[in-house]
Amino acid sequence: MSARQPLNLIDRIPGDKAAIAKRTVKEQISDRLAYMIHSGLLLPGDELPSERELAATLGVSRETVRAAIGLLQARRMIEVNQGARTRVLGRGSMPLHESVGVLGGLKHRSLEEVTEARAAVEMQVVWLASQRITPAQIARLQALVDEQRLMLGDPVRFQISDQEFHRLLYSACGNALLAEVVFDFYGYALEFRRLALQRQGAIASSVDEHQGMVDALRTREPQEAVQAIRRHLEQVHRTTRAVMKR
Description:
The protein is mainly α. It contains 11 helices and 2 strands. It folds into 2 domains: 25-88, Arc Repressor Mutant, subunit A; 101-244, Four Helix Bundle (Hemerythrin (Met), subunit A), CATH 1.20.120.530. Helix content is 62%, strand content 2%. The chain has a two-stranded antiparallel sheet with strand order 1-2. A hairpin with a 7-residue loop joins strand 1 and strand 2 (87-88). Helix 1 (25-39) packs across helix 3 (62-74) and helix 5 (111-132) runs parallel beside helix 10. The termini are far apart.
């Protein structure tokens, strides 16, 4: 894979490419959780982690998490009760955030087609990230992996952390457009990823693969990083296909 490789795949990706207005941190956190609810990764009845846990996973203050939760509560997407965990209610009245508008164009695509396109873009993203990632970004990714090892019995918390891990990984490529495009691919068929993660040992395997990606990024060797993400994508494709065929 060459630094001069053209990125014209972007021109063939469906969805609205209009500029996204800048949003506050609380709105960004609200969008991320709304994304998971709309995609089916978080389902009605799911209990969210505590404010403290969410703040640690997402790298923001508890006040920011509380404000983001308030936005979703106002839209009847979640329910907050004193002395009990915050629960997911459903999609409410909040439309999909425009940053995931491409999902509307992908939902009718086959798993094989999306997997191939995602791999082409994501390997380019990771190739760039291996050369541009900062020590602080590597440290943050490692911190997330360390936390994920404590989430093997908590799929909801792991799913939130997994989304944050991939978001940070993509942003490390230094190209916001590529990061947004590959994150849209990440969102394809997330409701099936939830089922796949219920298999015994599935979360542990994902955590090990995340560690492999962080280790590869530390080497600053693009080919090692690309191999690590390829192994992860192959596992995601294999396990997602298995549950989709049930």
